[in-house]
Amino acid sequence: MANQGAKKRKEENARHMKNLLILVAFCNVIYIVVRLGIFHSSFSWKHWIGLIVTSAAYVIPYQQLAAMSKPTYSGAGELIDGGFDMKTGGICGYLHDVIYITSFVQISSIISDKFWYIYLVIPGYAAYRLFGLVKEFLPHGSQDGEEDERMRKKREKMEKRASRNKFVKTRAR
To answer: Composition bias, kind Basic residues: at what positions (predicted)?
Structure first.
């Protein structure tokens, strides 16, 4: 009964990684068959670049996720840890997002080349998150320094209101 959770997580991770691999393979096969087979007359060198970019955008996050989901064994070969929980957020969630966005872009770019612009969501979101992180370290203006007259009066009024006794009206019966 020991390490049942680790065994269960190992199996879940193996199943999850298999499903991701099927998704990646399915999207690549559909793209190659439809784009090269059916729409071969409109296939150009830009589409080869797109295929290489999407393949790299699949491989890099998939390898990271595979390394995270890898179980840990003791020297005797016993299972110690079943790997990282793939259902958690954070970097694991971001890597999943990259794979899912890539599959959407790859499949939808069969219809129109304009769908490649959706890839701008990834660096846009990264810039948004980095700006939020950097913003915490920047000075926030006049916090401990001088405060203007209006803010001082407002603060004093709030302090005065908070220090007053509070009376509760009750109904007389």
So the answer is: 163-173
